[in-house]
Amino acid sequence: MDVEQFKEDVRVGRITTDRLIGLVVSLLEKIDQLERQLGGSATQKCPEPFSVRAEEKRQEARGKKRKRKQRSRGGRKRTAEKVAQAVRTEKVFPAGLAEADCWLSHTRVVWRVENGQAVLVAYEIYRGPKNQYGKIPGVFGRSEFGWCRPGSFTPAPTPNRTCKFPSIRLSR
Q1: Is residue 169 classed as helix, strand or coil in its secondary structure?
Q2: What is the pLDDT of residues 119-150, one digit of tens each?
Q3: Is this prediction's pTM over 0.70?
Q4: Would 92 be classed as within a structural domain?
């Protein structure tokens, strides 16, 4: 039976509603028969949930242990963590000012070499009334690395450091 011809017959009224209902019922029976031959519905749901988490749970139930990723420590360490690691804390005041005139500004952590080992030292830096602050001995600018413990090692002065290019002087 041609589909277009069938549509036309239904519109005109040549096919009765009883015949139409019988045709639908026979088609539904044919679908049921074909599904039984295939072994069930084509859109059958899986009896178990399927996801990575569900698979891990199934493996744990079978006795396999879950492998956890170890997080590698990346990025910068917070100052609070460095202060907690510091061996000792020292106070640094501005030169020429009394301790009573100063207040705590911030804390810096500096690596020092003491007795052949690298050691973290926390410095509490105090500020004075004219925004002067204490300078950590042996530390340049905002660096985290300094010389050895102040007083234990003094580098030899190098008045005329040289470079491999004779026209360039490194110091004044």
Answers
A1: strand
A2: 999 999 999 988 888 888 888 777 777 654 45
A3: no
A4: yes
